[in-house]
Amino acid sequence: MSDVAFGWKALTGAIAIAKNLKDFKKQVDDSAFQLQISELYDNLADTKMGMSELKDLLRERNDEIRTLKEKLKVRGKMVYTDPYYQMENSEGKLEGQYCKVCYDGEDLLMRLEIMSSNSWKCGKCNNICVKDERWRH
After folding, report:
1. So where are the chain's domains?
2. d(Cα 28, Cα 20) in Å, to the nearest integer?
3. Are 34 and 18 in contact (CB under 8 A)?
4. Distance between CA atoms of 84 and 10, rounded to whole angstroms?
5. pLDDT tens-digit readout, 42-62
């Protein structure tokens, strides 16, 4: 059981005990005791709300970590082959043509549209990639 789940269960149990004590206080005519029980109940309720917020924050962080791990996994498959990026598939072959401007600038995988046998255009940023073999060594 996770620490948060254990803390949540313990807190819920403590609130139940505080409720029982609050009911018991009706039978006791000691105002100091009644005040302490009321304060305990209020503090436990505040703590439970705080635990709920913490639980939501942990869920958000876990989602963020999952997203970053997925991006890192994709980044490991990307290979720059001038003038665009390609993605390595499970067999080690390069696939697709992805915009260098969008990937480097915004971490977006935007497939390029073929304009001719050696040129491609990005539909998002309108970058034009030209593969010119004359400049290769």
Report:
1. 3-74, 82-135
2. 13
3. no
4. 55
5. 888 888 888 888 899 999 999
